[in-house]
Amino acid sequence: MKKVCFIVPAVYPLLKKSEEIQSAGGAEAQFMTIGLRLQEYGYEVHFIVDDYGQQDTEKINQVITHKLAFRYLGGSKRHIVVDWLRLIILLRKIRADFHVLKVPKELLVPVGFFCRLFRSKLIYVGQSDKDVDIKLLFKLQNRASVFLYRLGLLFADYAVAQTAVQLNGFRKMGLEASQIKNTLTLPPNNSSKEDYLLWVGNSTPNKQPELFLKLAQKLPQYSFKMIHAPSLQGAQDKRFHDASDKIPNIEYISFVPFHRISEYFCRARLFVSTSLREGFPNTFLQAWQYGTPVVSLHVDPDGVIGNYHLGKVSNTFDRLCGDVVELMENENFRNDMGENAKRYVYENHSIEMVVPQYLKLFESLNG
């Protein structure tokens, strides 16, 4: 039986369907969904996860989790060498054939070193289009992080791209790569629509949550819900929470466990994205899965919003306001886009389409 090991520090709360641990993210949801399906194809699936006070090893829905403290994440970097050595020891214990990693990117170095030493395979999955724009990375991140990322890519056997931009970028870097689209991660939900616009994200500058608050102020005739995932920017989180209290038509929701998030996407009339850049946002797929069009300020991965008529791409804040009004006031137009969205995601992003591509990749690397 072949073994696959996903290194995903923050996935444990999603696997356990925790109500208390505030952790959520697109990468975690993707790998959890893919990993759970892989074991149905006869693979032994392992997840290396952070320390949440759980047992060292647990079996959850037929996949095996291994606890490892990643103390340097969000903390002192003096732990990084010891944490990496402990990771390598754990990888040696698991002895997987394939290792899959997306974030944090600097783990490419220790995992890649292990894979070269013990002749297993490392697959890096791109997170954002900025991952292939080194000049931009140097502007957005510290030089040490970018250096470790570039060094780690030298150890990768293969790169999986979310978008065509990532695919071209990885190939220019000299990596063997292919595009495997993100998969749907939420269950069916037939709840009826309610009259609100939804935003889901965190306080990082790229997400620009302040623009959603501004949008609510500009359009007081509509209701808004803002699901604000916890981040390392605790002061920023509080700032946006306090600002939302002064806007009567917006409901601020600080944390929703992943297994309950479908209700919000399903009931929303529109999903609004204010991000500057992304890869292929899981929030888009989560909205489209339930027939909720997306109004995006900037992001349109591979041009699918425009090409498949799944919503609007505004490019300016004033246009964003106009696009929201147009879709909220035109029910037939909005519903047509919602039907396009459901058709698009089930034809291009279903788990039945995505997992066989990973199986084919594993077979090619094993050969």
Assign a percent range to the helix content.
40-55%
N- to C-terminal distance? 15 Å
Q: From the coordinates shown, what is the CATH architecture of the largest domain?
A: 3-Layer(aba) Sandwich
Separate helix tally: 15
Average the pLDDT over all residues and give the rounded result: 93
Oligomeric assembly: single chain
Give the CATH superfamily of the largest domain: Glycogen Phosphorylase B
Stretches where pLDDT is under 50 for at least 5 consecutive residues are none
Q: What proportion of the residues form beta strands (DSSP E)?
A: 15-25%
**Number of β-strand runs:** 14
Biggest sheet statistics = 8 strands, mixed
**Rg measurement, Å:** 20 Å
What's the CATH class of the largest domain, please? Answer: Alpha Beta
Structural class: alpha/beta
Indicate the overall shape: globular
Order of strands, main sheet, comes to 3-4-2-1-5-6-7-8
* Count of folded domains: 2
H/E element string? EHHEEEHEHEHHEHEEHEHEHEHEHEHHH
